[in-house]
Design brief:
VTC_sf; about 25% helix; VTC_domain; alpha+beta; VTC domain-containing protein
Length: about 230
């Protein structure tokens, strides 16, 4: 399993105007990350939760420690799919991942978790055990566009996520094109992630008129859009 690395993460909901200003500014000083095709790329995730929606309620109730499981792929490329576990612990968090095939993902969508019974990767073993013991099941698909920038010092990453859609039709996870309901009222979410420190010039670079941080959760919003 990948080494656990706790990271800081700050989120701001920003307007389309400030999105345009920020992207223009960031493109002058930072390089896009390795996933970028042109300026941005698409992300599609399928989130899992227990039959009691424990991950959902952990977030809604403001619990300090939370974890979510999802499968994800980029730019409609089904040759690279990952199962991910994202953990939030107070003000910091970490993410772990394991590669899976499209065939395995399709089995998980159908709740045929036995396909992971003999998995060797520790994260796949953990997911299998929790699916069996906690009755995990796929809940909602989240699709959105991302423009991302990276800076090596501090392992700094800046992302702008926009055009988010959500759908509970989990069988459509591998369908092409936008699916589901568009997130209303929010043009873009700015996220700044780093390990131990954020370079001062990066702090200055991402300043906008909208300085209120948010606990924006794509999973929770996706559930709301589809009436839980």
């Amino acid at each position: 399993m990948s080494q656990i690395c706790y990271r800081n993460e700050y989120k701001h909901e920003i307007s389309q105007k400030n999105q345009v200003i920020l992207t223009s500014r960031l493109r002058k000083f930072l390089k896009h990350d390795e996933n970028s095709v042109g300026n941005s790329y698409s992300i599609r995730s399928l989130y899992f939760d227990t039959i009691y929606d424990e991950a959902y309620w952990d977030k809604e109730d403001g619990r300090s420690y939370r974890e979510k499981f999802r499968i994800r792929y980029y730019n409609n490329d089904c040759s690279f799919i990952r199962l991910e576990k994202k953990v939030k612990d107070g003000a910091v968090g970490y993410k772990q991942s394991a590669r899976i095939t499209k065939e395995t993902a399709e089995q998980l969508i159908q709740k045929n978790y036995a396909c992971l019974a003999d998995a060797s990767h520790p994260l796949l073993q953990e997911f299998y055990a929790k699916c069996k013991s906690q009755c995990m099941e796929p809940k909602v698909i989240i699709t959105y566009e991302r423009e991302a920038f990276a800076y090596a010092p501090g392992n700094t990453r800046i992302t702008l996520d926009f055009d988010m859609h959500a759908s509970t039709q989990v069988s459509s996870f591998f369908h092409d094109g936008r699916i589901g309901i568009r997130e209303p009222g929010i043009d873009c979410v700015l996220e700044v992630k780093f390990d131990n420190y954020l370079p001062l010039w990066i702090q200055n670079l991402v300043q906008t008129e909208e300085t209120t941080s948010t606990s924006h959760s794509k999973y929770v919003i996706g559930r709301h859009l589809n009436q839980i």
